[in-house]
Design goal:
The protein is an all-alpha fold. Helices cover 38% and strands 0% of the residues. The chain has one helix and no strands. The protein is elongated, with a radius of gyration of 33 Å. The N and C termini lie far apart (97 Å).
Length: 108
């Protein structure tokens, strides 16, 4: 017959087992801290770049008065590419071949 320790008593660990358990606990703790720090830094980087992107877009009131009253409207979108003054034609996107398509707006 084997003797079992009662459930309320802890089994006795040897010094080597205690050392291993402690090392595992420390390694686990530092791993969790490292993962949390990586997630925080990555999240901060993403939020910073998103805000920088969103705040760099210029918005204008293209439809003064708000509503279109469910009528067809033609809207011209204009862009500005901010190329440097010393840009050469070979480094300029405007020298690349372009395709332009135009379609008339439906009339009622």
């Amino acid at each position: 017959m084997t003797t079992q320790t009662p459930p309320h008593q802890h089994r006795v660990l040897t010094p080597e087992q205690r050392r291993r358990r402690r090392r595992r606990q420390v390694a686990t703790r530092w791993s969790v801290i490292g993962v949390v720090l990586i997630l925080l830094v990555t999240g901060g980087y993403v939020v910073y770049n998103y805000q920088r992107f969103v705040n760099g877009i210029t918005h204008i009131d293209a439809l003064p008065g708000g509503s279109t009253n469910n009528k067809d409207q033609n809207i011209l979108l204009v862009g500005d590419d901010h190329r440097p003054d010393n840009a050469t034609p070979s480094s300029s996107p405007s020298s690349a071949p372009k395709t332009t398509a135009a379609a008339p707006a439906p009339t009622r």
